[in-house]
Amino acid sequence: MLHPAIAHFAISLPIISLVLGLLYLFKPSELMSKITSRFFVFAAVFAVAAYFTGKNDAQEVFEFLSNDAKSVLVQHAQLGLYLAISMVVIAVVKFIGCKKNIFKLEILSVVLLLLLSGATLYQGKMGGQLTFEHGAHVKIAQDLGKQVKVMKEELSMCEDDDEDEDEE
């Protein structure tokens, strides 16, 4: 279950990149252009990683979810794919703008990231809804914990029975 850890970076890095990008637009410098470009690239890497870890984790929980939760999960997965692709495109635009020193491309990338950040926050809300309202992963862990407890009790009873037989 890597997705929860990766997803937090996939949500926070675009927001941090946006703040840095806006600062860069107000006070442009070559150093700030390079820093923001690298943040955009890191955000893209984590967006792609979040998509693939989410795809993997979704396979583990899908069968345990209610129909409503399955619907939210499908929407969450689709938006995750769109966000990953979009973040890669935006990072490429920003990187080209930085390397070729085309300020208009860098402005475009920050504006696109502004739009993407809203969708990213919505994606985080859906992920939280899956976890806290529909119990994705949480419910499975609780159910497994209950099963382990029952099995331990049964094992303990079997061991007690064995001890009673040995004493006779």
Q: What is the topology?
A:
Blueprint: H1 3-26, H2 30-61, H3 67-99, H4 103-133, H5 138-167
Helix pairs in contact: 1-2, 1-4, 2-3, 3-4
Write a compact overview of the structure shown.
The protein has five helices and no strands.
Any descriptors?
2 domains; 5 helices; single chain; 0% strand; 168 residues; mainly alpha
What does this structure look like?
The chain is mainly α. Helix content is 89%, strand content 0%. It is built from 5 helices and no strands. The chain is elongated and about 85 Å long. The relative contact order is 0.13. The mean pLDDT is 89.
How large a portion of the residues is in β-strands, by DSSP E?
A: under 5%
The CA-CA distance between the termini, in Å, is: 49 Å
Quaternary state, please? single chain
Q: Catalogue the unreliable spans.
A: none
Number of strands: 0
Q: Could you tell me the radius of gyration in angstroms?
A: 23 Å
- So what's the overall shape? elongated
Can you give the helix content as a percent range? over 70%
Compute the number of structural domains. Answer: 2
Largest sheet descriptor: none
Quick check: average pLDDT? 89
**N-to-C SSE series?**
HHHHH
Category from helices, strands and their pairing: mainly alpha
The tally of helices reads 5
